[in-house]
Design goal:
Helix content: 40-55%
Oligomer: single chain
């Protein structure tokens, strides 16, 4: 299935987003005389007009929604699109876990910017209908940014609702428990809207934000706050897992990559480089598959309990979950240091959901 991942979908859905656009933004970012934001906005609007943007669409609102995610994805491509795909069993366990004692300061990001993919989640619906399928995580100076993303069946020119939410965690949030840091980030997004609006009204920026746009964007934030909190919690759990179990990832190509091309990667260094370059030019992505060891341990435990249930050891009632959580574990000299430990969720009446590995 092509366009399995959001970066591929975004490139396919936006006619302005191509190699020339990515290169132009890169050049502008390294040329102090070129305003990057204006270049991005001008390119987007020129493409929108060429493709027939409806007269009913508020163009400033459209740009406020489209420009930040385009710049985020360009930055992701500059860094070779690091992609971490969470395995189904691990995702299920993390969904049934709380961030607990986790702080942003505890998390070791595997890349300056990367994409966490977990697939469309039916319980995480933006506007009640668009499943959140992943998050782009980035460090920007002293801040930590997370763009939650979802797909919509509407055209990029006419979509009434956003397919992404970019939230910024200020430096002050680093030492807070993760759930409190999320509250701070959502509050900061509302404060930033009001600040941008005030600056726009005073002529101190070029955003031309009207009261109508500010109110619409604040309403978007308010309506989606419960889902944003849940999705950010899931992202935090994924990052805590990557921090605590960095070895449980396998680096390779996406499953949609042609088998014949993948086979050529093992035919010598020169052939491997040529083939990898061609695969990237065709739009295939390299992927870190996260949680494969974990998934194997789950399958082994489930097989063991299925056998025991066949012997009449366990009741036939439907199992339920006892939620997991993260906490700090004392270690080191005089046990003065702290590290994250995952107290894993358990299937009650169904055996441990995640056994030891």
């Amino acid at each position: 299935m092509r366009n399995r991942y959001f970066p591929q979908y975004f490139r396919a859905a936006r006619p302005y987003y191509n190699n020339a656009f990515v290169a132009a933004v890169y050049r502008a970012a390294h040329d102090p005389s070129v305003p990057v934001v204006q270049l991005v906005r001008d390119t987007i609007m020129a493409s929108a007009e060429a493709n027939g943007i409806a007269a009913s669409v508020n163009r400033q609102h459209f740009l406020h929604r489209e420009s930040p995610i385009a710049q985020t994805l360009v930055t992701l491509e500059w860094n070779d699109t690091p992609l971490y795909d969470i395995s189904p069993a691990l995702l299920e366990a993390l969904t049934h876990s709380d961030t607990g004692d986790t702080r942003i300061a505890d998390l070791r990001l595997p890349n300056h910017i990367y994409y966490l993919h977990w697939g469309p989640q039916p319980d995480l619906l933006l506007y009640g209908k668009n499943p959140v399928e992943g998050a782009i995580v980035a460090t920007v100076e002293t801040q930590w940014h997370v763009a939650l993303i979802a797909r919509t069946s509407e055209s990029w020119l006419s979509m009434r609702e956003r397919d992404n939410f970019l939230l910024k965690f200020p430096e002050a949030s680093r030492a807070l428990p993760f759930d409190r840091a999320v509250d701070l980030a959502i509050g900061a997004a509302s404060d930033e809207l009001r600040e941008v609006f005030a600056a726009s009204q005073a002529g101190r920026n070029d955003w031309n934000m009207s009261l109508e746009i500010r109110d619409q964007m604040e309403n978007d934030l308010r309506v989606n706050t419960p889902v944003l909190k849940q999705a950010l919690s899931l992202a935090g759990n994924c990052m805590a897992y990557l921090t605590t179990y960095p070895g449980d990832a396998r680096f390779g190509w996406e499953v949609d990559a042609p088998a014949k091309m993948v086979a050529k990667l093992g035919q010598g260094e020169k052939e491997a480089r040529r083939t990898a370059s061609k695969m990237k030019s065709l739009g295939y992505l390299q992927v870190h598959r996260v949680g494969l060891d974990f998934q194997q341990s789950v399958e082994a435990v489930e097989a063991e309990h299925a056998h025991a249930a066949g012997d009449g050891e366990h009741p036939s009632r439907r199992p339920h979950w006892r939620r997991g959580h993260w906490r700090h574990q004392a270690h080191g000299p005089q046990r003065a240091q702290r590290k994250l430990m995952w107290m894993r969720p358990t299937r009650v009446l169904g055996g441990p959901a995640m056994s030891h590995f």
